Amino acid sequence: LGAPVPAAFPWRTVGVVSSVTLGLSLVYYVQAVQHGRIFGDLGVTSPASISVLVTTASMGTILGGYLFKRLRRASMLQLLGSSLLAYGIAYIGIALAPTVTVGLFFDALGQVGGGIMLPSLIAWALGKYTYEHRGRGMGLWGGAFFLGAFISPPLVSLVGYFTSGFLASIGVVGMLSLLLAALVLLVAAKGIFHVADGRE
């Protein structure tokens, strides 16, 4: 008997996973790449103070990761929708924050969203590939995710060109995130799509 013929690599799945991953990474990297600039535009001039604020806000990532672990009964769409909801509120709050303290609160909320989004995306992507294809599939997933680190900053700058500046562009991203969150959560509530989450 000959060796079993391996299944063809699922390029269509790669297209779906990579597209969704890239889209969400654009939201994720607005904060991850330009964290320091956010506080700089909120009026903090000391690099040391910005570092402390960024570190403090980043504690929200730990909370987000904890929530991902605790929300075992939530579907992947619910988790990703909740992450986008947190980002939407956070980015709008940052754009409108009257003080650094208020901005810090909303910035930390965005970190909570990131703490939910990243493991959710990884679990979702893993669930879309069989064992034999997970190595290549997740390698391509990583490429799509980290591509967002290069694309997100110029997109934010482009939005800022048509608005009143950097913080205003953050607010625009926040509004788009809220709209997308509403769509995702509506789809999850209606049960229109079944999304394998890989968390069995």
State the order of secondary-structure elements, H for helix, E for strand.
HHHHHHHH
Taking all residues together, what is the mean pLDDT?
91
Number of strands: 0
Largest sheet: none
Contiguous runs where pLDDT drops below 50 for at least 5 residues: none
Secondary structural class: mainly alpha
Q: Which term fits the overall shape?
A: elongated
Q: Helical stretch count?
A: 8
| Computed Rg | 18 Å
* Oligomeric state of shown chains: single chain
Distance between the termini: 34 Å
Helix proportion:
over 70%
Strand content: under 5%
Task: Describe the protein in words.
The chain has 200 residues and is mainly α. It has helices at residues 11-33, 35-41, 47-57, 59-70, 76-96, 100-127, 134-161, 166-190. The mean pLDDT is 91. α1 runs antiparallel to α6, α4 packs across α6 and α5 packs antiparallel against α8 (166-190).
What would you say about this model in short?
78% of the residues lie in helices and 0% in strands.
Please render the helix and strand layout as text:
Elements: H1 11-33, H2 35-41, H3 47-57, H4 59-70, H5 76-96, H6 100-127, H7 134-161, H8 166-190
Helix pairs in contact: 1-6, 1-7, 2-3, 3-6, 4-6, 5-6, 5-8, 7-8
